[in-house]
Design goal:
The structure holds 2 protein chains of 2 kinds. By secondary structure, chain A is an all-beta fold. Chain A is 0% helix and 52% strand. Classes of the chains: A mainly beta, B mainly beta.
Chain lengths: 118, 114
């Protein structure tokens, strides 16, 4: 149980284009999903908290107009990197909290999406 | 300030040897505590968690961790390491409020020698 998927797993795009990454909770409902960015050999950096049916909450220093988050349902959140540039190249990981779990703080992570911007 | 420290950036152990990965946290109150493992190019898998009760918690893959309030520590242990345990290990904490935000340590890279 508690499986989170991400799609695509790997994407290469040209500078200036937009890329959408999907995060799905497959066997549970998630009112809250989180988006992280991870640089090589580093820990995870929280970008934003995505709440179903409301606006995402962005961490300090994260450009909300560049990283658009939509949490359309209890099982799907999307991250769109708009007008991507090479410095946006990174490993993006999402996680989800199980709504019905006894302790709602446990986060289950997706497999990640490797974004390369040329 | 809230923080998580994993003092060992890189650890190498021989296969079959015991393992202990250290984690110390700084938090206003006792937080929820987690250990995650990440294989190269993959997401994070939950190994175990501590919310309350017995301070020695058992996880998957033969891992256990012990919460020591007096030392603000949550060290991860395994009695006999397998080559497949080679990965990145992250300790994380979350407050007992409802935001659920995780604060991660810097991670420890485990290398296993044959």
């Amino acid at each position: 149980g508690a499986v989170v998927s991400q799609h695509p797993s790997r994407v290469i795009c040209k500078s200036g284009t937009s890329v959408k990454i999907e995060c799905r909770s497959l066997d549970f409902q998630a009112t809250t999903m989180f988006w992280y960015r991870q640089f090589p050999k580093q820990s995870l950096m929280l970008m934003a908290t995505s709440n179903e049916g409301s606006k995402a909450t962005y961490e300090q220093g994260v450009e909300k107009d560049k990283f658009l988050i939509n949490h359309a349902s209890l099982t799907l959140s999307t991250l769109t990197v708009t007008s991507a540039h090479p410095e946006d190249s990174s490993f993006y990981i999402c996680s989800a909290r199980d709504l019905l779990a006894g302790a709602q703080v446990t986060q289950y992570f997706g497999p990640g999406t490797r974004l390369t911007v040329l | 300030a809230q923080s998580v420290t994993q003092p060992d950036i890189h650890i190498t152990v021989s296969e079959g040897a015991s393992l202990e990965l250290r984690c110390n946290y700084s938090y206003g109150a006792t937080p929820y505590l987690f250990w995650y493992v990440q294989s190269p190019g993959q997401g994070l898998q939950l190994l175990l968690k501590y919310f309350s009760g017995d301070t020695l918690v058992q996880g998957i893959k033969g891992f256990e961790a012990e919460f020591k309030r007096s030392q603000s520590s949550f060290n991860l242990r395994k009695p006999s390491v397998h080559w497949s345990d080679a990965a990145e290990y992250f300790c994380a904490v979350a407050g007992r409020g409802n935001t659920g935000k995780l604060i991660f340590g810097q991670g420890t890279t485990l290398q296993v020698k044959p």
